[in-house]
Specification:
globular, Clc chloride channel, mainly alpha, 425 residues, 17 helices
């Protein structure tokens, strides 16, 4: 029986194969994260060292990042066009319509292209590559073992969720994302495969990445009911910001399409050069943004610098995504959400000083609310923020903020970002 044959899924086969695809996805995604961590360190070292060379060092940094971005774009255009951008809209399309393209070449290009683009400094996230690489692994295993089409779809979705789980050390968020966003329903076959794949992926990845949450946050107290109005207000603000952010991403992509006389590699090189200029003056602000998010959660950034960083990162993510190199949207959104949440807290506390919360409280709530506004997946956003920080005391304010964020964004008639991207890509 080939994978084009329709048929009911075998739950025993799905349960068994989901463990295999999860383990392979966890191994590949963990390797991807380790290589990215090394690339971030080498990039920062290179930029700092280049400052001692004066203007020649500046040119070298700008041209190097431009070259790296153009190489990532060339790999995509030459070997696997479906590997451009986040990859999540592509996975959603495959689940609805059926697989097209070569999954092996896509996985290879996504891995090395993502290392070049994100490691080179573009403000892109690691979850896009790991999700799409996982989907490719699910497809390869399902097809090689002759599973039917429904089983292959479940394995593709499950492996994609395992990729997200490994990207952020967040197994529950990975599973919820599949059911809330990719599958759009809590189908029993998808649920079995997704839980198995996420669990096995995390078991494998934690051998290499450790057990701690991605962000180190001190234990936070539970907040009383007096914080709920602030959470709702923050959610409404995030709903508006999420709509603006979505439109910036789509606007940057549409603007890049107008320059069709430029090859994709030239466009990526131009964006890479801009990122190189930013990185020369502010190395912390380029790349996926994890060190910046950690600094925010530790309260190490002054208000004036935080406001400037927020504005810059708010635009840098969409600009980087317009390069169409492999890279996701989640990690940059986490940084923007944490920045916006912290700035909101400082403004609110100025007028309501009796608020019994800290900037860290609202930075984490801001992560969940901004994610919910952009992606329109409030459950994933809430669980992801909790697993990233280990802050289980913030469920109530997160629920209020994500509720308000999704409501406002929906009332403004702005579609979820991946729905919009699927119409462009």
């Amino acid at each position: 029986m080939n994978d084009e044959t329709q048929g009911p899924p075998s739950f025993l086969a799905l349960a068994s194969l989901s463990i295999a695809v999860g383990a392979l996805t966890g191994l590949l995604a963990a390797s991807f994260r380790l290589f990215l961590h090394s690339a971030d360190g080498w990039r920062t070292y290179f930029i700092v060292r280049a400052h001692s060379w004066g203007f020649a060092g500046f040119l070298l940094v700008v041209l190097s990042i431009a070259l790296i971005a153009s190489l990532a774009a060339w790999l995509v255009s030459r070997f696997a066009p479906e590997a451009s951008g986040s990859g999540i809209p592509h996975v959603e399309h495959q689940l609805r319509v059926g697989w097209s393209g070569n999954p092996l070449s896509m996985v290879i290009v996504k891995f090395f292209g993502g290392l070049l683009a994100i490691g080179g400094g573009l403000a892109l996230g690691r979850e896009g590559p790991t999700v799409q690489m996982g989907s490719g692994i699910g497809r390869l295993i399902g097809r090689s073992l002759g599973r039917n089409r429904n089983e292959c779809r479940a394995l593709v979705a499950a492996a994609a969720g395992a990729g997200l789980a490994t990207a952020f050390n967040a197994p529950i968020a990975g599973a919820i994302f599949v059911l809330e966003e990719l599958a759009g329903s809590f189908d029993l076959g998808f649920t079995i495969a997704t839980l198995g794949a996420s669990a096995s992926a995390i078991c494998v990845s934690r051998v290499f990445l450790g057990h701690s949450p991605d962000f180190r946050v001190p234990a936070l107290d539970y907040l009383d009911f007096g914080v709920f109005p602030a959470s709702l207000t923050l959610g409404m603000v995030m709903g508006i910001l999420g709509v603006v952010y979505n439109r910036l991403i789509l606007g940057a992509l549409n603007l890049s399409l107008r320059f069709r006389h430029f090859r994709g590699t030239v466009r990526a090189a131009m964006i890479g050069a801009f990122v190189g200029v930013v990185g020369w003056f502010m190395p912390l602000l380029v790349g996926a943004g994890d060190p910046l998010t950690q600094s925010i959660l530790e309260g190490k950034i002054l208000v004036a610098a935080l406001a400037f960083d927020f504005v810059l990162r708010f635009f840098l993510g969409p600009i980087s995504y317009a390069s169409r190199t492999p890279g996701g949207l989640f990690a940059p959104m986490l940084t923007v959400g944490a920045q916006a949440g912290t700035l909101f807290f400082m403004l609110w506390a100025h007028f309501v000083p009796v608020l019994n919360a800290t900037p860290q409280h609202f930075a984490i709530v801001g992560i969940a609310a901004f994610f919910a506004a952009v992606v329109r997946a409030p459950l994933t956003g809430t669980i992801l923020a909790v697993e990233l920080t280990g802050s289980f005391s913030l469920f109530l304010p997160m629920l209020g903020a994500t509720f308000a964020a999704v409501t406002v964004a929906s009332l403004l008639r702005n579609p979820p970002i991946y729905e919009s991207l699927s119409e462009i890509c």
